[in-house]
Amino acid sequence: MNSALAQSHSAVVARGQFSGAEKSPSARRNMSAAAAKRAKTTTTAAAGAGVAVKILPTTPIDGQKTGTSGLRKKAAVFSSGNYLANWVQSLFLALPSEEVVGSAMVLGGDGRWYNREAAQIIIKLAAGNGVSKIYVGKDGYLATPAASAVIRARKAAGGFIMSASHNPGGPEEDWGIKFNYSAGEPAPEKITDKIYGFTQTVSELKMADIPDVDLSKCGVTKFGDFEVEVIDPVTDYLELAKEVFDFDLIKSLLTRSDFSMKFDAMHAITGAYAKPILVDVLGADPSSCINDTPLEDFGGGHPDPNLTYAEELVKIMYAKDAPDFGAASDGDGDRNMILGNNFFVTPSDSVAIIAANAQACIPYFKGGLKGLARSMPTAAALDRVAVALGVECFETPTGWKFFGNLMDAGRLSICGEESFGTGSDHIREKDGPWAVLAWLSILAHRNKGIPDGSPDKVTVAQITKEHWAKYGRNFFSRYDYEGCESEPCEAMVEHLRAVAAAAKKGDKFGPYELDFADDFEYVDPIDGSVASKQGVRFTFSDGSRFIFRLSGTGSSGATVRMYVEQYEADVGKQDVDAQVALAPLIKVALETSKLTTFTGRQTPTVIT
User: Is 165 a catalytic residue?
Assistant: First the structure.
């Protein structure tokens, strides 16, 4: 048992399903003798919200610095000692007291192992620190985009999201947590930096002396002036989706006899949303949803929707009689992959195509788009759409939080990242189901008036190729080298910075002539904040470029990401395989970086 819960702790109800063998009791958190001793020495404080509060002593724990998407570590780390409790208490200390005391907050997650125990810890700390109400998804479930929607709909002060996103789950795998602010956006660095500061000095935990809350059924549980409302995890998100999209239009597509689709929830959180939305409301055949039961270890899989880890869906979509449309989402539901019959749509193309068709196909955008944005490594296909629409296009660092300021200022409608994240200003998170519904809206709009069974049915591949013909194709690929040792990776990035600093316009890199090279720095156009060292990029005179950066989304080690992009306006050359078209640039990028020398890796873990 976590020492932060050394007081009476009832059994956690409604355990999530688990695909593997049940773990032995030793794999669960048993209260140590030291923890029991500490529990006896705690004191009771005045009630913060009409409940008794126990003050539990604790000591700082190293390494609790929040990254671009929250704090992520191995589940065994989070589930030991006061690791989670320290971070949550530090967050309450970092927030202004007026934003905590008497406030309402949201809690949910992706269903991974340890979420249910963690939810009880967070609820008790929230009550102990003066929060008056917690909205928590039934069974602890809330997809990240749904959490953002709930925060906004219920005017909460913020919310906790228990997720390590697309990383594997289970006792030996990853766990994570992040805090989203009152607009539903990830907490800004000014808050996460304060949280980190308090993790280095935290000395006590304010834990409400209340029993565990039954999260298996919807309803309100009260303890004095503090209450926990267990809500349906789908309802608020579904109501918002109905405001954004034309559900009758989408239903007209999904109920056609000549249209078929597959949505792969990868045994992650969108399994809780797929059937209620796609089947029950929009009329899709129940067989359209696969792997749609959330499991604590995601069925032993890696819930990252790409061509490597979504292998089952890829095989289905590249079969002889493949469905017309395929999509997958990740652990917490904020990422997406889009496929057609024997056709893959890159995330960079996907956001550009959605933006180009949004006003005509999605009611939420019928008044036009305010602006567009992409992360710096994302291919520039979106930029060309922005020019055609006459709107701004912003280039930001990787991390969804950088889009929030632009949205709040009314300058951004649709945005995306090459890491399979797409979304809009309807919430303040990337949104996997939103991207799926956007594509279904485009397909439905393009197929209006085309008879059921007609050979003229418009396909994903046709829409994409017509987009290339109009705007040109940005060939793009990303190489991921996962689980590398951190030190040599950091040395490689320093080497690249030195090469970029010494390079000058006109220098030759193989057959490519350099336009500029730098380490990307972003100055926020709204608040003037600066984010530096966001990726080393080499851009050439023909618009080609390659970029290297270290990812901050893993729980251990380092992931090197290499991005390569090349523009092609000639329609006759746009059907070439991306790996073939990019081969010369990939060779130059690997030679310039000396990646193999630094990391010892001969091949990437994942190619997108």
Answer: yes
